[in-house]
Amino acid sequence: MPLVSGSTLLAAADKDGYAVGAFNVNNLESLTAIVSAAEGERSPVILQASQGAIKYAGLEYIAAMAQVAAARATVPVALNLDHGTSFTQAMQCIRAGFTAVMVDGSRLPYRENAALVSRVVEVAHAVGVSVEAELGRIGGTEDDVSVAEREEVFTDPEAAARFVAETGCDALAVAVGTAHGVYRGEPKLDFERLAAIDRLVAVPLVLHGASGVPDGAIREAVRLGVRKINIDTEIRLAFAASVRSTLAADGSVYDPREILGPARQSMEEVVREKMRLFGSAGRA
Length: 284
Ligand code: 13P
Fold this sequence. Notes:
The protein is globular. With 284 residues, the protein is of the alpha/beta class. The longest helix is centred in the C-terminal third of the chain and has 23 residues, at 256-278. The two termini are 12 Å apart. The strands form 2 sheets. Strands 1-2-3-4-5-8-10-11 form an 8-stranded parallel β-barrel, surrounded by 10 helices. Strands 7-6-9 form a 3-stranded mixed sheet, with no helix packed on it. The chain has a single domain, classed as Alpha-Beta Barrel (TIM Barrel), CATH 3.20.20. It has helices spanning 6-16, 28-41, 51-57, 59-72, 87-96, 110-126, 157-167, 191-200, 215-223, 233-249, 256-278, and strands at 20-24, 45-49, 77-84, 100-103, 130-135, 139-142, 145-147, 171-174, 179-180, 205-207, 226-231. 51% of the residues are buried. The protein binds 1,3-dihydroxyacetonephosphate. Residues 24, 82-83, 142, 180-181, 208-211, 230-234 line the site of 1,3-dihydroxyacetonephosphate (13P).
């Protein structure tokens, strides 16, 4: 089937109380690993491209690969821009065939963030594309986007409600204690804040930086209203561990398929596990 919009998937998740995984793609191997996991688990899935992925693989290649994967798939697949930096980039993605865009104005003052998101919403909604925004600042490093611990700001529930009402965005990424990348200690999520945000905000909530968050905390976040969960780092770690072990086991191997094939398998296993954890397995 063709790519579906992000809000189609999140509306179904909201109705039945689970979260859809949004997995970062960088190349053919990661993309096919994620879609194959979705097929195996009968799960809806969101593919997403970060700034680094767009630089590395190119917007058109990512969009084309995702369109082919979705057309061949028997489960619903959406394609999202992750941490979009500008109105221009959001428009380029929509034109290339993305069915969801995140526009991350969280570095801007409230007013400017809201103005940027509203502008994107107006155009995106006219063509059936959904929009995710971010309020507060999520720590860590996600490709080109880096937020030091001292710059982290947790999302204020009342401001979040106002922001969603003013902008018309379809989903909101919240800062409640997660960070992008590898955690140094165990992350501590502010569940009270998450519950307060969910009580006041009408749209589905998004948890970024979910790699390395303990399973129990993920389940609690889903129970409290998180409907989209982003995973990048754990997929990369699985990829790198597999490539290292293949090369260490046989130094004479040179066929990319023999190196990347097992890596694809490892990435698929991580994604399948997350789909079961998020409760999206068996929903497609
Ligand atoms: P991780 O790298 O921690 O998995 O976070 C991914 C993410 O939030 C992408 O926006």
